[in-house]
Design a protein that fits this description.
Blueprint (H helix, E strand, L loop, with lengths): L22 H13 L1 H9 L3 H12 L7 H20 L5 H8 L2 H17 L2 E2 L8 E5 L25 H14 L3 E5 L9 H10 L3 E6 L6 H9 L2 E7 L5 H8 L4 H15 L3 E8 L7 H11 L3 E6 L16 H17 L4 E4 L3 H11 L5 E2 L7 E2 L4 H8 L8 E4 L4 E3 L10 E2 L4 H9 L5 E2 L2
The structure holds iron/sulfur cluster.
Length: about 450
């Protein structure tokens, strides 16, 4: 395949390297590392996720080798990594070891390398299991929002039992799932939430919660820290209480949510964000939302595309026109670059294109090729975006419903879905079959 010529400013720059090969070269170099006989020797012997994670732990110095073979594997891994680092002009092995001290990093690295060993380098990359699962833990919710994709309200009689939920976490852990986002309905309405969050965290999975924020009292926030939740995303639709409450179908929802955000920020231990779904209801007042986000001192402000599924189908006419979306995203980008408050992101792919164009005309400095990560011009963002791919549904990411159905995405209730209790790996393979990523070389 012929690659399009690229502006050097968007080339590849691994960890501060001064050399800027483009993403094709990056993939070719990565292929060389994978083809290296040491690396291949290791990867073909560590096809089991748990074993691979353990060897990475030995290498990072946080786990003890159980026998001489494991010490040798760790040393060979180090030798292979050194060769790779040389290729990418990375000098400090301690940086890599430091990152691998985190269990979720070891999970993600092991899953990625196993996937490359199994499928080769593909563009976008095929993964053996999703790095991330969004789990709609319950349909139960204390609000009744107009845009709710889950059509939440009452508890589904078919919701998994606690025992089944814990079993599913075991499957995720074995497969190498690195991150779980607990969503709903309102996850904090489910009595099972605390046990499953704690259990997933205990497995070293990076746990996060997406909540409407109305139940985030100081006690609840303390408990979220205790069960190991790392990131809290709170949805808010307007800076105006009446607009938000009308949209959310509940008086005083805004007041409780804003107090919940204050409690989370005050606790000081979570990564956090305000999430807003952009519709005709609120897009003209996004400046006021941003002022509110700044005054609340949240770390991120994320604007989600409205996807008319669930109850959202009833307000499809409230979706933005392409022109309205472009104006909104341009406004958000300029605010982001002004650096006066939180990092500002959007799930719209157009946001990345706007960033790149702004850098090219000299009016921007960063862009966001993967929705939630800022990249400077000259960084490895485009290579990373091509490796991770555009839509990750059923590949990098999957959705688990409250009843155990595994789907490619919360917005894509694929009809051929199956229950996760029938075997997570097998279902993932079926979901992967929905897509046909282009193989390199
Ligand atoms: S959008 Fe969230 S808060 Fe609103 S009804 Fe649905 S699950 Fe509940």
């Amino acid at each position: 395949m012929t690659e399009e010529p690229r502006d050097e400013r968007f080339g590849v720059n691994f960890y501060g390297s001064e050399k800027l090969p483009d993403s094709t070269e990056l993939v070719a170099q990565f292929q060389k590392i994978v083809d290296n006989r040491f690396a291949r020797w290791i990867m073909t012997r560590m096809t089991e996720q748990k074993k691979f994670e353990h060897i990475l732990g030995v290498f990072a110095g946080v786990e003890a080798p159980r026998n001489i073979k494991e010490s040798t594997q760790s040393k060979v891994l180090e030798a292979a990594l050194k060769r790779g680092m040389k290729t990418f002009h990375i000098e400090n092995m301690e940086v890599i070891k430091g990152a691998l001290k985190e269990k979720y990093v070891r999970k993600g690295v092991a899953l990625t390398l196993r996937s490359v060993a199994r499928y080769g380098i593909t563009k976008p990359q095929i993964f053996d299991a999703p790095l991330m699962i969004v789990w709609n833990t319950t349909k139960l919710c204390n609000l009744h929002c107009k845009h709710c994709y889950a059509n939440a309200g009452a508890k589904n009689p078919d919701e998994m039992s606690l025992e089944q939920k814990l079993k599913v976490i075991d499957q995720f852990d074995e497969a190498g799932v690195t991150m779980i986002a607990f969503s709903g309905g309102e996850p904090l309405m489910s009595p099972d939430f605390w046990k499953i969050a704690e259990y997933a965290s205990s497995k070293g999975i990076y746990t996060t919660i997406a909540t409407n924020g109305t139940l985030l009292t100081k006690n609840v926030v303390d408990r979220l820290a205790e069960v190991g939740i790392k990131y809290i995303e709170i949805s808010l639709d307007s800076a105006d209480p009446a607009t938000h409450n009308e949209f959310r179908g509940q008086a005083l929802a805004w007041e409780r949510t804003v107090q919940g955000i204050k409690n989370v920020v005050e606790k000081g231990v979570f990564d956090n964000a305000i999430a807003t779904t952009a519709t005709k209801y609120n897009y003209k007042n996004m400046d006021k939302m941003l002022d509110l986000a700044i005054s609340l001192k949240v770390k991120r402000f994320i604007v989600f595309n409205f996807v008319p599924t669930g109850r959202g189908k009833e307000i499809i006419s409230e979706d933005l026109s392409p022109k309205e979306r472009e104006d909104l995203l341009t406004f958000l980008y300029d605010k982001w670059q002004a650096k006066v408050g939180p990092e500002i992101y959007s799930t719209s792919p157009e946001y990345s294109r706007i960033g790149i164009n702004k850098i090219l005309d000299g009016t921007g400095k960063t862009y966001s090729p993967t929705h939630f990560v800022p990249m400077d011009a000259g960084s490895n963002g485009i290579a990373m975006a091509e490796f991770l791919g555009g839509c990750g549904a059923g590949r990098i990411y999957a959705a688990l419903e409250d009843n155990g159905d595994l789907e490619p995405c919360v917005f894509l209730p694929y009809k051929g879905r199956e229950r996760s209790e029938r075997g997570f790996q097998r279902i993932m393979e079926k979901l992967q079959g929905l897509k046909g990523p282009e193989k390199q070389g």
